[in-house]
Amino acid sequence: MFNIKQLIFILGIFLSILTGFMLVPMAFALFYGEETIGDFMISGLFTGFIAIICLQNGRHRQFNLNIRDMFMLTSVTWFIVSLFAALPFTLYHGINYTDAFFETMSGITTTGSTVLSGLDAMDHSILVWRSLLQWLGGIGFIVMAVAVLPFLNVGGMRLFRTESSDWSDKTMPRTQHMAKHLFQVYLVLTLLCSLAYHLAGMHWFEAISHAMTTLSTGGYSTSDNSMAAFSHEAHWVSIVFMLAGGLPLIMFVQSIQQRSVRLWNDQQVKGFLLFVVLVSCSLAFWLWRHQHMDFIDALRLSSFNVISVITTTGYGLTDYQAWGTVASVAFLFLMFVGSCSGSTSGGIKIFRFQIAFSIMRQQIKQQFHPNGVFKEKYNGHRVTDDIVRSIVAFFMLMFVVILGLSIILVLTGLDPMTSITGAITAVTNVGPGLGPIIGPAGNFAPLPDIAKWALAIGMLLGRLEILTIAVLLHPKFWHF
């Protein structure tokens, strides 16, 4: 049986938090004298009313969620919150609800795909709401990756299980304690990023808005030209803090608590940083040699775009499709990679590739020594059979979801390039796809409504590591 009352109560908490954060764009609307203050007021009152109903009806003395409850909570809550968070967009100049939901889901999942244009002239309150959604989604998914997914053993995440990765009564205080520290570090990094952007030439509003979408690796901008509208110094700031967003936030917390830098001691972090440096430098050399760019500019452009895609931020700086076939193929592969587990980024994540190569190496050894026993380890933890099965299942399900989503998009009349890369970028939460429609120079507005709903669901599937929702589709999940 599901603990329905407790689930409703938690949903009420999330909706209450959402209501509280709607006060932020309301304050901006009041400060700038924008008419959107009424839109956010109506949305906040309605969301708050539903939150109160959930809190009243879900009140319960005991609080103990089982594993079924956790799968249901993790899958359903983000969808329902997105339904309410889309309300201000719907009320703003009559944006239809499909576009509003797409924009919201893209924001909360930190995907960064957008259907909106004319951002440079858009109300400040709407722009800050977009950025705030990505910022909240970023910290929300970090806490989920640290405390929930390892407990559910989703996609091999058990490797990162900590004392907070449990939802029993004994460990709940530890979970709350860790969540508090994660939020504090996340907030400090955002403030530092805001200051750095301002020193790089951005106005404070632009700096704060972009800081929220940089640390969350979301990619929403206040300009249709994205980061191309700002200085070269701002690009370097973005490179640094996108990298920070792609690292496990819990390791920042541990480094501060133990007063020693621990990032380089992590196998996942080393692999991620080495991969970024190798690809960025290789592409910079390609641009310098074949596109005849100045090497510093080539390094800036290659590093920015590589890090933007691999951390699934999705900021636009230049149309890298114009760099030639080699670059296009490279970025298509980078869409899948992702950065580190426990970061704000989406994608497959570096650790799964590392374990896959480790298993492949083990199989090759086994061919030479059939009777040998080889025990693979990752960051000091043994890679058990259930972790391997979970990772294999994740890879297979991701392929199936991307294939199915691509077929749906083709059936709506989209061309193969848009359909395939649209499916990939949604499930991996990158943002832009490839091609003239949804490429770095375009957006998702021209797509049919059915395609937008399908892509929005794909974003949520990818952000929740696919297996979390796939479990709900199995008949045995509903057998009590």
TrEMBL record:
Similarity comment text for this entry: Belongs to the TrkH potassium transport family.
Keywords assigned by UniProt, alphabetized: Cell inner membrane, Cell membrane, Ion transport, Membrane, Potassium, Potassium transport, Transmembrane, Transmembrane helix, Transport
Listed InterPro entries: Cat_transpt, TrkH
Main location: membrane
SUPFAM superfamilies: Voltage-gated potassium channels (SSF81324)
Record's bilayer topology term: Multi-pass membrane protein
Pfam entry (one): TrkH
Membrane spanning stretches: 7-31, 37-55, 76-95, 132-160, 181-200, 234-252, 272-288, 322-342, 391-411, 453-473
Organism this protein belongs to: Shewanella metallivivens
Name of the protein in its database record: Trk system potassium uptake protein
Keyword Phosphoprotein attributed: no
Annotated compartments: Cell inner membrane; Cell membrane
